[in-house]
Amino acid sequence: MLFDYGTLRIIWWALLGVLLCGFAIMDGSDLGVAMLHPIVARTDAQRRVTLNAIGPVWEGNQTWFVLGGGAVFAAWPLLYAAAFSGFYLAMMLALIGFILRPVALTFRSKLQSAIWRSSWDYIFFLSGLIPSLVFGVAFGNLLIGAPFHFDKSLHLVYEGDLPGLLNPFSLLCGLVSIFMLSMQGAAFLAAKTEGDVAERARCYGARAAVSLVALLSIAGVWVALKVDGYALQSVVDAAGPSNPLLKSVAHEHGAWFANYKRFPMSAVAPFLAYSGAAIAFLSLRSHSTRTAIVSSGLSIIGVITTAGFSLFPFLLPSSSTPNHSLTVWDSSSSKATLSLMLFVVVVFLPIVLAYTAWAYRVFRGVVTEASVTRGDDYAY
């Protein structure tokens, strides 16, 4: 084996972050476009422009969601069980949003009726809003902790419900997610469209960037003042068995900031979140759309890694039984499974990246109202 068990766990923790960032950047563009669809596009032709802007790439972008779910299932089975049991209804809402997207794209232009098309436009908007909100709420509950525990046989018992997930702090995180992905979608639309649609995308994207900075700051102050973190109280063997019952954990005020003191370099994550959003704002205002896309993506990476560094080594804390919280060290698959899956990732992830780059290159260019109205080769 090239890596010991503890190192493999760290590698898979990092890979989980990579997949989450990939999903938020790639599919986040589509979610952002869906949320902005009725705002930046006012006429039927303009709305067909926004649909066809993501038309060739949205299915490939959604692959990142499948990759993330598969990675959690294979590498972190206890996390998969806890998250999909505790957040089951919330995840179902997100999946409903993902189901609504292709349905709205497919059926929206089938009839000429204004009521028909406006109804599907509203459904398409919800297909972006609901998943964006749910994923932000999920991250908020990671920081608060979920009410679950294990019995002696490691059978998970979840004690919460959907209303409990919708607490004020998690809803604030949901708003952070909405504006973060709206910024990304706006940057994408600004690059892929022209005229009024592109101008409105730049305007609303700049507003989303400012809102993201403000909401992220409020969330940071909230965590500092109101949200008690979790801290390991016992020595944990990094190469020990995957049994979350063998450690001691305590609530501690300010625990989520401890890693930034312990590892000062991790402060690059919040710096990236803020600076990326600021550069995206300036780029959108100055019509530098490519820079806006890159800086918006960097801001997304910063937001997600800020949460990841704050939580480490926790993956999902337990608010009801802190000692049963899931960490990087006690909720992974076996060493053999992590090694095999790492080989699969090393082989296939570059293929996914190469295909994605190829697809974006093939379908590069601007979608215009004239080409859509003329009846050129557009799917929607």
Description:
The chain has 380 residues and is mainly alpha-helical. Helices cover 70% and strands 6% of the residues. The protein has a domain at 5-227 and 331-370. The protein has helices at residues 5-40, 44-54, 58-61, 63-75, 77-86, 88-107, 114-144, 162-165, 168-192, 195-226, 258-262, 268-285, 289-311, 335-362, 369-374; strands spanning 148-150, 156-158, 228-232, 249-253, 314-316, 326-327. The strands form 3 sheets. The protein has a two-stranded antiparallel ribbon with strand order 1-2. A hairpin with a 5-residue loop joins strand 1 and strand 2. The radius of gyration is 21 Å and the shape is globular. The N and C termini lie far apart (50 Å).
Number of strands: 6
User: Stretches where pLDDT falls below 50 for ≥5 residues?
Assistant: none
Which sequence of strands runs across the widest sheet?
A: 1-2
In round numbers, the mean pLDDT is 92
Order of helices and strands: HHHHHHHEEHHHEEHHHEEHH
- Helix proportion range: over 70%
The biggest sheet amounts to: 2 strands, antiparallel
Discrete helix count: 15
Which geometry do the CA atoms define? Answer: globular
Radius of gyration: 21 Å
Distance between the termini: 50 Å
Given helix and strand content, the structural type is mainly alpha
Beta-strand percentage range:
5-15%
Query: Please, what is the oligomeric state?
Result: single chain
